[in-house]
Amino acid sequence: MAKVILKYEAAVLKEIPLKQGTLTIGRTAANDLPIDNLAVSGHHAKISYEGDKFVLEDLNSLNGTFVNNQRVRKSSLKNGDEILIGKHTLVYMDEGGAPPEKVDPDSERTQPMAKLEETMVLDTKKRREMLQKATVVATEGSSATSTERIGTLTVLSGKTDQKEYILTGRLAMIGKSDQATIRLKGWFAPQVAAVINRKEGGYSLSPSGGDAKVNGEKLQAARDLKESDIIEVAGVKLQFFFRE
Amino acid sequence: MAQPLEFEVGARTDVGQRRSNNEDAFAMVPQINLYVLSDGMGGQAAGEVASKMAVDTITGCIKDASEAGQKVVFGDENPNVSEFTNQLASAIRLSNQAIRETAKKHASQRDMGATVVTSWMQGQIMSIAHVGDSRIYLLRGEEMKQLTEDHSLVMEQVRRGLISREEAEHSEMQNIIVRALGAEDTVNVDVDEVFLMPGDFVVLCSDGLTKMLPDDGIVRVIRETSSPQEAADRLVDIANEHGGEDNVTVIVVQVKEAKPRGLLALLKLLFIG
Description:
The complex is a heterodimer. Chain A is mainly beta. Chain A contains 1 helix and 23 strands. The radius of gyration of chain A is 32 Å and the shape is rod-shaped. The two termini of chain A are 51 Å apart. Chain B is α+β, with helices and mostly antiparallel strands. Helices cover 35% and strands 27% of the residues of chain B. Chain B contains 8 helices and 11 strands. Chain B has a 5-stranded antiparallel beta sheet. A 5-stranded antiparallel beta sheet of chain B has the order 2-3-4-5-9, with helices on one face. In chain B, helix 6 (215-224) packs across helix 7 (228-241). The chains are: A mainly beta, B alpha+beta. Strand 12 (120-121) of chain A pairs parallel with strand 8 of chain B.
């Protein structure tokens, strides 16, 4: 189905489906698509369905109408064309397929909007469009994933299988267990003394039934690890650092 | 090495009060501690085909890897998680392929898709992987934590700061998901690893449950029942009492300390701990 998406700079304002007939664009309220901006003439342009395609025509506007940055008097539209009217852009979208709806001025929209009870899957393109609709000021690119720092543990004293550990995994267990990342060697060492979780932006240490201390304080609950923290558990001392 | 943990499981699935067929599917393989749950979609019972395919493909793949050592690597390996977690993600990608191929062959199944949520325990580490808006929760002490992030449009809006979580919960667009098995040729699987402790409860569920009761309702049921099966049954009953608007499926896994087996293990426990 064909439509135009009205934008001001990068912000999407609304989406207008194009039916057969004419869509008038201009500053006055009498237009089908009023754009309230001084750069727009009272009756600036119109989009009509001619033959088998949509055609844009400038109505002798003061500042002109541009399609893909070229000033035009009359131009047929193709998918993706960007129409510039004053400071507003109308992006013409038409994936092809079904011809546009005939406009019947007497008919009312009797079919109510289908209630979204069933789960619907959006494809990537539709999803981008829907998210744009909700954006007042579209910010290009999603939240930047900052290059995450990697934590490391240096063994200060005690029996472990390595002198240094680089914490790339989601989980790092400290203990005697086969699954432990930091393997304790003492015969009386617990299977799992403590667990380090890697999450967005950092690491946290949780106790696991044994005694663990961070900077001399007993570890009661999960605690975020900070640069240079010293972890003492099962006779082993480890220092936490972020590696750049 | 003796397993430090034991798991007791209960599960139930129900068509609910409003739908004519059940398009949810699940599987449990207690011998290898694998749990899989899928919510299918697509007109005319195609959803049933999709969710069953998801569950069958994934359990088959993981069983082969676990028992026969036949590992399947499908898609990029993530070096920051274990081979088991990677295996689980590969199995899910494989099921996406299977659903996609089948959908292309039959006009009536063209739009079929499914969500999937999986958990696989190795010792004390649980690998989880999911696509869609079915969820896994971890109940530890008083805290019920959702371990998976919904791949729904409203959650993306929340993530981008467009709407708040409360607005998301009341949005009319809650049922729109942005990732599903069968939707595209490749699928992006989210994975994670969680350390389990005795006393924990792991709950896998389709949105048919969470649409009908809030998280603290789920906690209450688990605390008030005396077995995971009783909890699963009760959760489904309550979902139906509250309207049962969608198919509902729930798997409840209770994490317990393993009992020592044999004299040697008992001696070890007494003297070494």
